[in-house]
Amino acid sequence: YCGNSLSTVLEWLNRVIDLYGEKYEIILRPRPAFSLNYFRSKIKELFPKLSLKIHFIKDYSIREWILSSDIVISSFSTSLLEAAIVKKPIFMLEPVKIPEALSAFWYRFVPKIRSIKDFLLLFEKNSFNTQYQELFSFVKKEFFVNSDPIIGLAGILGKISNEKYFFDGDKQIKILSLSSILNSGVKEKIFNTFGWLKQNLTFKKDY
After folding, report:
1. Could you give the CA distance from residue 146 to residue 140 in angstroms, rounded to a whole number?
2. Is 61 buried (19+), middle (13-18) or exposed (0-12) by CB count in 10 A?
3. Is residue 205 a contact partner of residue 199, using CB atoms and an 8 Å limit?
4. For every one of its 207 residues, what pLDDT tens digit does the chain have, with 9 covering 90 and above?
5. CA distance readout (Å), 37 to 5, 42, 70, 200
6. Rg of the chain over CA atoms, in angstroms?
7. The whole model's pTM is what?
């Protein structure tokens, strides 16, 4: 399945470069378990005529690549979940039907590309601005117990009292009583400080 799918997609990518190579830069990133050399050798074996304009890069984390990309296209990969939560356009390549063993519930929320016609149309129209919405809603609902971790942290700090906590059965650690301090306005200051840091470090309130 993987070999057949990859061979087909490489042919599609070559066609995109032929038609729209001046508009797009295509980066192929191997899965974490594969070395870059192995990935390149496999590509050469499956599709030796692949355009040199398609880049193979494994440096940096997948999160950094997602944040710097205009569009994220993958097969079965959790990178699509990460891309959706930062509101990047996403698509799942499915030139061959995905086997049941590799299927997951959340795939239904990702737009599918099943033919070269649909793939080329994607780049021709350059219309992929909101395709993350369904998966974004799913991820936010299912993976985030609290929609904002800063609010959750402030809530935990507000509940700290002079209770005793035990570790390893021997060492007793006493937490300073903060309830009276937090109730006197410091809680709001802590909350606002975290909020300021979050917005200034991430530039987005929701990430």
Report:
1. 9
2. exposed
3. yes
4. 988 999 999 999 999 999 998 888 999 998 888 899 999 999 999 999 999 999 999 898 889 999 999 899 998 888 999 999 999 999 999 999 999 888 888 999 999 999 999 999 888 877 666 678 899 988 888 777 655 667 667 766 666 654 444 444 444 444 444 444 445 556 566 766 776 676 666 555 443
5. 20, 9, 26, 39
6. 23
7. 0.66
Q: What are the backbone angles phi and psi of residue 73, rounded to the nearest 5°?
A: -120, 130
Structure tokens at 9: 């997609």
With tokens 């940096």, the residue in question is: 60
Judge whether 150 and 191 are in contact, CB under 8 Å. yes
Q: Give the integer Cα–Cα distance in Å for 154 and 131.
A: 33
